[in-house]
């Protein structure tokens, strides 16, 4: 797995149809692409100045797929235009990487196909989409497949809930990994499954899959090696839900993945608390094997409309401050 250059990235959503469902959660479904491309351009153009060398793009319904045109919504971008923008990103020093979320709780963008998880038809569609997006992105190093929050707690508000377990989950997951590798990219996933089912995870998860550990609080159960009096107990991430276990399972998995030889990225955010970026960088630098740390990125979890612009700039500034503090040798 090629981990160099180290990724310093931000997740941006051209499509927001992960959480909505046009059949059961109408209030969250976007009937057309809402991203303001002027806001998009101002954000991505600023990113290199804040120490970013990559952008992770959630594609979803924002692309006019040739393999599955039924997934495009009004405002979707045709492939030629999409490729030109990706070339422009490369020209300003940003390595574009794609994300399609195949979690049973975040796949509303798949429309009717999201009702067919665990089937051959679903796996065929997933392979076709992965191949097409990989081609559009010029065969990227990493391809993020999501797979987060597929559990009853996180899907509690959904009227249609899908949680794969056991062989059903692994059959689909292995197919996604194989399709990504055939498309000449490394599969990349959120590591939530490790929190909930650590024994099963370590038995079945290939080390060829890049892991993505996230916690948008202060990683409070991992003590600071630099600041002995650092107080962190009040800054838990409320979005971390671990069935029947302490929230510290999310923290512990970061260290355990590293101990067991998995390559991973860490993800911070300004979504929950302002200290997330600093603590994530500190843990990355002071606790993890740098040879197996593929990178760090931030996920503001905002849209790309005018009111969201400052929020993304805030995330970028906090990320840049942390990078300069803990990786000064990688800052220009």
What does it look like?
It is a single chain. With about 325 residues, the protein is of the alpha/beta class. Helix 3 packs parallel to helix 4 and helix 8 (about 275-285) packs parallel to helix 9. The model has no long low-confidence stretch (mean pLDDT about 90). It has helices spanning about 35-45, 80-90, 120-135, 165-180, 190-195, 200-205, 250-260, 275-285, 310-325, and strands at about 5-15, 55-60, 95-100, 140-145, 185-190, 210-215, 265-270, 295-300. Helix 7 (about 250-260) links the parallel strand 6 and strand 7 (about 265-270). The chain has a single domain (about 5-330), classed as TIM Barrel (Alpha-Beta Barrel). The longest helix is centred in the last third of the chain and has 18 residues, at about 310-325. It is globular. It has an 8-stranded parallel beta sheet with strand order 3-2-1-8-7-6-5-4. The protein contains 9 helices and 8 strands. It is about 35% helix and about 10% strand.
Q: Globular, elongated, flat, extended or rod-shaped: what is the shape?
A: globular
Q: Mind telling me the C-alpha Rg?
A: 19 Å
Share of helix among residues? 25-40%
- What's the CATH class label? Alpha Beta
CATH fourth-tier homologous superfamily? Glycosidases
Enumerate how many helices there are, as a single number: 9
Task: Spell out the helices and strands N to C.
Answer: EHEHEHEHEHHEHEHEH
Distance between the termini: 26 Å
Portion in strands: 5-15%
**Average pLDDT metric:** 92
